[in-house]
């Protein structure tokens, strides 16, 4: 029965293909290509190619209740979630890797709400562990001490950062070495709730003060009850709650920032940072940076020294946060830290706290996942982190994935790179010196495909998770362990030499990502599935996965990536003045083109200044993929269809971006860096004369304009 379940789960993602075997003699019928159902053939592709390719998408994929956008990225991510959920729900087997057993135990503990609810309140444990919460204590606040060392100990124990965020990144001006990046607290409240595409964790600063105050009122009253405190005057509690929210609001603005201290990026040693801090604050804040940072990174097994390099967003922000700390009474700092801990941990506590948490999110029209879905996402900790993703990716690769695809995909990757480099050779507007530097950068680029190589080996995956404490009965403790794993993942390279091949995203995430500071692309195994890639229909594979790879390569030479060298060092403008001038002119062409695209749902046009980087990448990606497709043997047709291979390439591209959005989603994303999906199709195809030729579009028709924008 279990093997049947596994097969059914795989078929969720691959139902449109007749066989798992790569039989290249098979002649496909149009009925084998499910996405052809999305086409609205009543529309002339030369008038509106998006409507032609996606006009019937909603018939087959209606917007699910509670969602504000639905497209192929979401659909495949849901299929990956179902597979992950199937794996996690299966009983632990003797043959399971130790890391997979831990993941299953963590999931089991997460969904066991009855056990969670009948046990001693774990928020009481937090309050007791931190020697009380001043807001519920009947003590003189002047007796409370709470300094940077105390804050660091809370971060080290619970995996939640306060005042500052820490991350290891490449040195902006020398990407061969790592630096410890210290930024202002972004106040992320990393709740597991439904996010729109491209949306990051909501920040506490974006939540209304009234909703936060309402949450705190309920939590404070509960805390007084479970700690058996006598009633306190309401006015006193309300005053302390307002102090917490006021502190949060000021922190969200960078504290008492002062631009006179500088607004540019600073790279220096910890010793230099300490000297600056001593000069401006002396003993008033008692901040020993070396001790403070070492307490935070201690769980990662690393250590910093005075010579360790750090990078600051600016001294202005640093000054502002330290000044806020200096002027805030210790009891308010401690109240804030515990309040923030309880908000982060609320979904992992008992029913009463979960309800308070749900009400807090409901106040902001945010939808929380049902418990099983919440737990899958909690255990995997993506999209922004790793969690147990490596353990699940190992199981997915060995039992749910056709390994032959990796070889075929590698061939497409090679052809896409060759195609882009050929476009550079043919770019007459580049002088020879700039052209060679650009080609060198592309040739030096890494593409991390599927997953880290070591995750194929179960022993190495087990070793990665060996220090992660997981108990099948302790969801609260497991959640803390996962947060500490997150901290260790982002800080463990503090004292190491830079390694551009270390993954920074989950292999189970539906996304591809180019990093300018690493000059590398990450393409997770989850992306190597239909609708992006199937291995049977080459025209679709090039129009979809090929275009996505080309899109990411193009980012290396877009309006931001062009300022970084082949290793990821910020090199400034290494282009000649004439080439830079031409680049700006060609970029302006895209800005002007996309600014004319009207969004009727919002009564506004595309914000083309914001979207220009992605527009450049979309156009470069499609051109690169098309020329790779034409030069490959993929143009031979094995499909009994009325469409030519060239037409199917563009149809594959168009159907990739089919989407259904609510008016509210489009309105809230007016200033996004991405245009609406319809224009991610219309814009690039109207810039390609090859598209017009493939569909025999009349001159000056909508998709065959007289003027076109081309960069790469």
UniProtKB/TrEMBL annotation:
Signal peptide: 1-21
Membrane topology: Single-pass type II membrane protein
Cellular component terms per the entry's GO annotation: plasma membrane
Location (main, coarse): membrane
Coiled-coil features, chain-numbered ranges: none
PANTHER family: FI17812P1-RELATED, ZINC METALLOPROTEASE FAMILY M13 NEPRILYSIN-RELATED
Gene name for this UniProt entry: LOC108739653
Protein name stated in the entry: Neprilysin-4-like isoform X1
Species annotation: Agrilus planipennis (Emerald ash borer)
Cofactor: Zn(2+)
Keyword annotations from UniProtKB, A to Z: Hydrolase, Metal-binding, Metalloprotease, Protease, Signal, Zinc
Family statement: Belongs to the peptidase M13 family.
